[in-house]
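User: tokens in, sequence out, please.
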């Protein structure tokens, strides 16, 4: 039975993050996803949140993402990844058809090709990007739109999620959000201090709510 046909059912949002990887022994998106799973606030009470943390592995993304979509049939996917050098939260608008052949994943694997899928150059996300960035800013953190999700697992996972969306039109909204590292840029100036987990959690919750609202507008 297709649960999407059940009237008044709760919208399902799949929220993902990543575990540690070489160069980042602590990945804040792992804590972020765990925090979202524990939220019991009225703003998210009407949603069915499915949370998942990917091992930072190409094989794990390929094996687990499709299974999660097939099992839960999410209306929206909100993916979080770490951008260690970023000073702001980045809402990614594109996934590019490229991989790095320099940095291995946690399985010590490097992609055999410089592209993910032969042919296409990029996939453009279908989401209200400006509204998502504005939702982040209401939490007090800076946010901007980005056209470069990198060449590592973040870009790879975003590409695979958009690939699934293009094939089936479900999930209807796919979002990738890069967050700063909480451990960087801790200086005396409050203006330059990295965000803490509470701030990131509030921003992440706003993104999830905004993504769900975008799905509702399509109904």
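Assistant: Sequence out:
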């Amino acid at each position: 039975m297709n649960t999407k046909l059940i009237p008044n059912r709760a919208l399902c949002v799949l929220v993902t993050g990543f575990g540690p990887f070489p160069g980042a022994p602590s990945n804040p998106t792992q804590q972020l996803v765990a925090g979202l799973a524990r939220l019991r606030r009225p703003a998210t009470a009407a949603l069915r949140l499915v949370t998942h943390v990917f091992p930072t592995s190409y094989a794990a993304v390929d094996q687990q993402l499709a299974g999660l979509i097939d099992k839960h049939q999410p209306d929206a996917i909100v993916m979080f990844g770490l951008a260690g050098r970023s000073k702001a939260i980045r809402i990614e608008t594109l996934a590019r058809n490229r991989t790095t052949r320099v940095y291995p994943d946690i399985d010590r694997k490097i992609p055999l090709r410089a592209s993910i899928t032969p042919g296409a150059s990029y996939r453009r996300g279908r989401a209200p990007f400006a509204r998502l960035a504005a939702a982040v800013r209401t939490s007090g953190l800076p946010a901007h739109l980005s056209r470069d999700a990198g060449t590592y697992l973040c870009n790879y996972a975003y590409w695979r999620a958009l690939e699934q969306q293009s094939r089936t039109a479900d999930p209807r909204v796919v979002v990738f959000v890069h967050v700063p590292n909480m451990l960087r840029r801790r200086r005396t100036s409050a203006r330059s201090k990295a965000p803490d987990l509470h701030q990131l959690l509030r921003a992440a919750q706003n993104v999830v709510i905004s993504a769900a609202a975008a799905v509702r507008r399509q109904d």
